[in-house]
Design brief:
Strand content: 15-25%
Shape: elongated
Strand order of the largest sheet: 1-3-2
Number of domains: 2
CATH architecture of the largest domain: Orthogonal Bundle
CATH topology of the largest domain: Arc Repressor Mutant, subunit A
Low-confidence stretches: none
Order of helices and strands: EHHEEHEHHEE
CATH class of the largest domain: Mainly Alpha
Structural class: alpha+beta
Helix content: 40-55%
Distance between the termini: 43 Å
Largest sheet: 3 strands, antiparallel
Amino acid sequence: MSNGKLPREEFITAVARELGFERTGQRIHEEIDNAIRAAARRGIVETGSFGVAAARVGIDDWTRDELIDALCSVMRRGNNYERDEAIKLAATHLGFKRVGKKVDEAFRSAINGAIRRGLVAYKGNLIRREA
């Protein structure tokens, strides 16, 4: 592996092993390949002729607008969410394994920005997607 890039097939095999699979059959291969495409759409990884590489690693790699988009993406219209729950869902959506202090602060700021823009409404600790 150089510069964090792996050929796609090598990446798929490595992910399968990390998930505990001894072999990479067609179904496992397809599921991982679909997950790579989803991660690329979300900006988590980059794909190309070189293979697959991490696009963004830390919370600072995401703009506030992208964090707002992630929040809106995981919140269903009409449902209320506790702020901590919405943050955890959005962080997972962007590939974070846990919500540390920096991730929490960044998403709380994004929630406030979304409220100011009218994308999210709040009542106490509960928020809901408006637009």
